[in-house]
Design goal:
about 160 residues, mainly alpha
C-alpha cells in the first residue's frame, strides 16, 4: 500500500512542478511581449492577452488582415481535419495548415525586420521563440516601424 502512496506522491510532485514551470514560462514570455509592445509605442498590456498579443504583433509589423487570414486558415484546417474521413478533405486541411505555417513564418520575419534584424534572427524566432522574444524585449533592438506601410523607415 505504501508503494501506491509513494507513486501518487511522486506523480503529484511532478505534476505540480510542471505547472509551476509552465506558469513561470508564460510569465517570462508575457514580460518579453510587454516590453516589445512598449518599444513599438503600444500599451504593454497588449502583449499579455492571449491571441490579442499575436494580433498586436501583426499590427506593429505587418497587416492585421494577415492575422485574420492566419486565424481563419488555422480554424478551417482544424475543422476540416477533425471532420474529414477521406483523402481529399484531409489534403485540403493539410494545405490550409501549410498556408498558415507560411503566413506565420512571414509574420515572424516581418517582426524581425520591424526591429532591424534579418533572416538569421527570423530563424531564431522560429526555432527558439522565447529566447529571441526576450532578446527583442530586453535587448538593444530598436523598433523601426511597420515596414509594410508606405512612408515608413527603411534600412
Amino acid at each position: 500500500m505504501s508503494d501506491v502512496y509513494s507513486a501518487l506522491f511522486l506523480f503529484s510532485a511532478i505534476s505540480a512542478a510542471s505547472v509551476l514551470v509552465g506558469l513561470l514560462f508564460y510569465i517570462l514570455i508575457a514580460v518579453a511581449e510587454w516590453r516589445i509592445m512598449v518599444k513599438a509605442g503600444e500599451p504593454g498590456w497588449k502583449g499579455i492577452i492571449p491571441i490579442y498579443n499575436v494580433y498586436s504583433l501583426y499590427k506593429i509589423s505587418w497587416k492585421t488582415s494577415m492575422f485574420w487570414a492566419l486565424l481563419g486558415l488555422e480554424l478551417l484546417s482544424a475543422i476540416i481535419q477533425s471532420a474529414s474521413d477521406g483523402f481529399l478533405l484531409s489534403f485540403v486541411g493539410w494545405i490550409c495548415s501549410v498556408a498558415g505555417l507560411v503566413i506565420g513564418i512571414m509574420g515572424l520575419h516581418k517582426v524581425s525586420k520591424a526591429f532591424g534584424h534579418g533572416a538569421g534572427f527570423t530563424l531564431g524566432l522560429i526555432f527558439l521563440n522565447p529566447i529571441f522574444l526576450l532578446i527583442l524585449g530586453f535587448g538593444s533592438s530598436q523598433y523601426l516601424g511597420n515596414l509594410s506601410w508606405p512612408n515608413q523607415a527603411r534600412f
